[in-house]
Amino acid sequence: MKILPNLTGWLLLGLCAGCAPRAEAPPRTVPVVRGAIRVTVPFQGELEARRVEMISVGVQGAAVLAELVPEGTRVEAGDLLARFDASQIEQDLARQESERIRARQELDSLEKAELPLERLDMEAKLAEARAETAAETDFLEVARGLAERGLMSGGEVRQQADKVEALRVREAQMATRLELTREHMHAARLAKARAALDAAERQRDFLARQIELCEVRAPVAGVAAHVPLPVGGEYRTAYVGDTLYRNQTFLCLPDPSEHVVRGFVGETDLPGVRPGHPVAAFPVAFPDARLTGRVESVGGMAQTRPGFPHWRKFFPVQIAIDPLPGPMPVGISVRAEITAGESPSALLLPREAVQWRGDQAVVRRLNPAGVIEEVVIETGLAGSTHVEVRSGLAEGDLACLP
Predict the structure, then answer these.
(1) How far apart are CA 159 and CA 156, in angstroms?
(2) Could you tell me if 340 and 268 are in contact, meaning their C-beta atoms sit under 8 angstroms apart?
(3) N or C, which end of the chain has less CB nearby within 10 Å?
(4) Helix axes 115-148, 186-213, angle to 10 degrees
(5) Using CA atoms, how far apart are residues 326 and 29, in angstroms rounded to an integer?
(6) How far apart (Å, rounded) are the C-alpha atoms in residues 312 and 264?
(7) Sign of the C-alpha dihedral, residues 331, 334, 339, 344?
(8) What does the longest C-alpha to C-alpha distance in the chain come to?
(9) How far is it, in rounded angstroms, from Cα 158 to Cα 152?
(10) Beta bridge partners of 339
(11) Cβ atoms of residues 315 and 296 within 8 Å
């Protein structure tokens, strides 16, 4: 009977102890500190020469490759790159040279012999006709005098007058024929002969140029690279003995003095990529090499890319690379980091301390009185771990973590 009161007391004591208020744990805070921040955009591209000289077949029609510089050969301007078989063109040139000489001789013969002799002959005949006309005209006057004295009949006078008139007509015809021959017929023959000579010389010069084009020399210094092309039903690089055709590109010379990296960035990364932004690049084939450069241009039209959904858009980017530390082949893959922004002394706050409400960045700040208050801040650069605070907080302020 005495145990129950004691037990009840203990229970009441335990209940009272449980009702006592507990002390709240202090909030987790981080200070706003000043430090460096750098934001980069990853980039994948290919190393290319800024200028590439494409070498194509210049010979008209088909040409058989007789000599070809090996792939990767470094050449200087004027060095021989390729040679095509010129034997048939040389035969054609010899025949055309004979044709040119014949045309020249024909023109010289016309100008210096045939046409002058024809003109002299016609002028001589015209002079004879004029002399004959003059003689017969004088005799007509004599005949008229004899007729007046009754020594010649009127019929004979009329017959002489008709003869004089016929001679005058013939003289006028011969004069006209001489004038037309000199101004038109001879001019036409000379023009035809000159045109034939000009055509022969043009063809001769064309064939001579074709022979020159059979030797392909480097227009600039560079490293020779063979370009695949359709050859005999295959798509491959050209070999000695292959038949190539005019304007087929079979070689290229990347200029080793200037290089660029070309690639694409996604539209979400576009705001951080602007011309002038510095770039650090790392060739995949040369992992120890570090290239530097700057964004040179950003495309203005979105594009789709093979292997990606059509709704994903990309923009072409070209990066100007500083002089390479050593020779590198073009076309190799390059990983790069484009610096979207950096600050050596910015107010920084961990990302988890910032809450976003729409477009507003809000931070819970612990003021000196120990009261938590919400502050709207303006953010700047945002990295993977920290955010730049441009306004709303000061260095040393304490921000509460969730």
Answers:
(1) 5
(2) no
(3) N
(4) 180
(5) 51
(6) 12
(7) negative
(8) 209
(9) 11
(10) 40
(11) no
DSSP string, 110-148: IIIIIHHHHHHHHHHHHHHHHHHHHHHHHHHHHHHHHHH
**Does the pTM of the predicted model rise above 0.85?**
no
Give the DSSP letter of residue 269.
T
How far apart, in whole angstroms, are the C-alpha atoms of residue 224 and residue 330? Answer: 11
Count the Cβ atoms, other than its own, within 10 Å of residue 123: 14
* pLDDT band at residue 15 under the 50/70/90 scheme: very low
Specify the amino acid at residue 220: V
Please state, in angstroms and rounded to a whole number, the distance separating the CA atoms of residues 76 and 98. 38
**Residues 87, 93: Cα–Cα separation, whole Å:** 10
357 token code pair: 């409400």
From the CA atom positions of the chain, what is the Rg in Å?
A: 51
Q: What is the pLDDT of residues 261-290, one digit of tens each?
A: 999 999 989 988 999 999 999 999 998 999
pLDDT in tens, 366-388: 888 888 899 999 998 888 889 99
Instruction: Write out the two tokens for 221.
Output: 């210094």
Q: What is the dihedral of CA 106, 110, 114, 117, to 10 degrees?
A: -160
Contact by Cβ (8 Å): 80, 215 = yes
User: 260: which strand partners?
Assistant: 48, 320
